[in-house]
Amino acid sequence: MRSAKTRALVTCCILAGCFTIFSFRLVHLQVTMGQEYAEKAADRNIEKQIIYAKRGIIQDVNGELLAQNEPMRTIIADGSLIERFEETAALLAGPLEMKTGVVLEKLRTKRFSKTANRSLPSKYIVLKRKVSERVATALQKELRAQHLRGIAFKPDSERIYPNGQMLCHVIGAVNSEGEGLEGIEKTFDHHLRGHDGFRYTEHDPSGNEIVPYRGQERAPRDGFGVRLTIDMRLQSIVEDELDAAVQEFRPKMITCILMRPQTGEILAMASRPHFDLNQKTEVPLEHRKNRAITDMVEPGSTFKIVPVAGALAERAVRPDTLIFCENGYYSWCRLRITKATRN
Amino acid sequence: MSTNRRRHANVVPVASIASWVVVAIFACAAGLGYVHCKNQLHANGRKIQEQERELKALITETSVVRSKIASLSSTAELRRRLNSGFIKLVPIPDSSIVRIHSPAPGEGASELRAVSNERTRE
Lengths: 343, 122
Known about the structure:
The complex is a heterodimer. Chain A is α+β, with helices and mostly antiparallel strands. Chain A has 12 helices and 14 strands.
């Protein structure tokens, strides 16, 4: 009996010792190292997902769209997930209008990992930006059908100007990051640009999002729209007239502003030379210049109406008053100001 | 041992067993309920994700169509179609235009009127 009791006591002691060791380890893991491990787990599984805001639209006085966004995709490859490189490259090359060799080379991009101390397949390879939604959807279906992994389609957008060359100087343009560079796009950039939102998401080891564990979330705020006083119907007339004038007189530059005199509203504004807003290639600076508001041009004869109106209002002259024009020149401060002569 | 004493010693504690069985059933039910709720949570999560994906695809599709409509109904496109002869505009003949003459000017309309410095002069 005594030996049995002793055995029981020894067993109990061993068990108690084991549990004490486990308890210490648990306390060490949970309390001492808890913060560090929680951060490591968060780094590995929690991701801050950006929800992009849409840039505001630009409309004319009647609500016709002058600038808007078209959804596009950026094709991204994860080299560590791709198993069949040749097949994937061959499939992507056609729709992306790239050579198979170029795609294959991009897919096989490697980067040096300090932790593994060797070169590993790159996890973020941008294959092509601004791919149309139609092409991206077709590619996505084809990849899924052929069970090819490692290609992601990141949402993107492109600024589209339905009227192309019309009103190009007034609307301006945006850069590849969607920031206004010129014209209305630049002046109202802080209104047009929205605020991106975000969402903290948690993923399982295979990369799928665990929806019930979604964390903090902030919805994006899309940019405000801008409505101009420009009337595209009048703008169209002005553009036609400018084109006709350019064809007839071949001037270096020409500009026209149509304004409502009662309010000062600009109804149409156009200049030549001009450019296509949807054209992505480099446009000469001279063509981008909105000469109607940047060039300093003396008013010339157009200003004559102002002193004449003032003189009539002040009753200094009458409509039938004759004015002596100094025989075509006027001396002032030893200067001889002559009338303009046409060559 | 007498028969009576043996019967007493081997008696089955039904009440105690029953209470433990009830506790075990409760524990099992609670456990299963918890697992069921958790599974439902994940299933709903997947459903939410699927619907979000569908909604996103629809929004994108709408944006693409909207952008196409804007391009096709723009003034520039209208001009292009007009120039190509797809749309034909017939000029309105002079006989179809009714011109409303401006009303006759009232008294003093032909007089010169000062528009500024009227008050300062007074």
